[in-house]
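TASK: fixed-backbone design
INPUT:
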């Protein structure tokens, strides 16, 4: 009877340790997969071209104005200012 209880306790401890190791493995696998997905998104993002200086940069870092992409607010402002001045020159008789 004592031997049966000892075997049952040993089996329960081994079963618990196995479940704990399995959950740790699954968590490690999930973290690794998440990290890989983040790396792919960071390196494989869509690139756009600045309308002012033709520099390519990731879409997440670019500024968008009127269906145009810009690398900085200064380039966006210069481009829009140039567009306004061209429209003003075209409308003057």
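OUTPUT:
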């Amino acid at each position: 009877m004592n031997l049966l209880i000892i075997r049952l306790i040993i089996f329960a401890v081994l079963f618990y340790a196995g479940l704990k190791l399995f959950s740790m493995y699954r968590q490690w696998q999930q973290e690794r997969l998440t990290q890989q997905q983040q790396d792919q998104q960071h390196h494989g993002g869509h690139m756009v071209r600045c309308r002012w200086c033709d520099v390519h940069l990731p879409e997440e870092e670019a500024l968008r104005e009127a269906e145009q992409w810009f690398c900085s607010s200064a380039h966006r402002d210069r481009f829009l200012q140039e567009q306004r001045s061209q429209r003003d020159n075209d409308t003057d008789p």
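COMMENT: The beta strands are 47-49, 56-58, 63-65, 68-70.
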